[in-house]
Amino acid sequence: MTAQLRTLARRAEGTISWRAAVPRPERTWIKDRLRDATGLLAQLDLDDTAPLAATTQQLLGTLDRAIGTLTEASIGIASAAQTAGIPLAQLSTWTHIPAEDLRQDIDDHREDLEEQYG
Fold first, then answer.
1. What CA–CA distance (Å, rounded) separates 29 from 36?
2. pLDDT tens digits in sequence order for the chain, 118 residues long
3. How far apart are CA 118 and CA 21, in angstroms?
4. What is the residue-wise DSSP string for the chain?
């Protein structure tokens, strides 16, 4: 994703680096969401001997939480990319989220970051 952000942030005078384009709190937040999603997926126990219904319910619940976390990360990455100067229309295409919805998601994400990191 970092490579994609660098590619999207390419300017006439060169490439904007991930560190220069994205404030530290947002980089940390994105990395935390990706680590959380990876941890959730690592917890999946496909060899569980519990009854099928219980195992399936656990699997679906874990996948749902992982997908939610990855969605949060993609919104954070879109926010960072927009900060780096990528137009909302391009980000909408990349995320497959309608531009107006993405605008609201990014605004909400930034408010959450402000509350969390000040």
1. 10
2. 566 655 655 554 455 566 666 778 888 888 899 899 988 888 877 676 778 778 788 888 989 999 999 999 999 999 988 988 889 999 999 889 999 999 999 999 999 988 988 7
3. 19
4. -HHHHHHHTEETTEEPPHHHHS-HHHHHHHHHHHHHHHHHHHT--TT--S-HHHHHHHHHHHHHHHHHHHHHHHHHHHHHHHHTT--HHHHHHHHTS-HHHHHHHHHHHHHHHHHHH-
Written as one letter, the residue type at 84 is: A
Instruction: Report the C-alpha gap between 45 and 70 in whole angstroms.
Output: 20
Radius of gyration of the chain (CA): 17
CA 24, chain centre distance (Å): 15
pTM of the model: 0.70
Rounded alpha-carbon distances, angstroms, from residue 42 to 29, 58, 103, 116: 20, 13, 32, 27
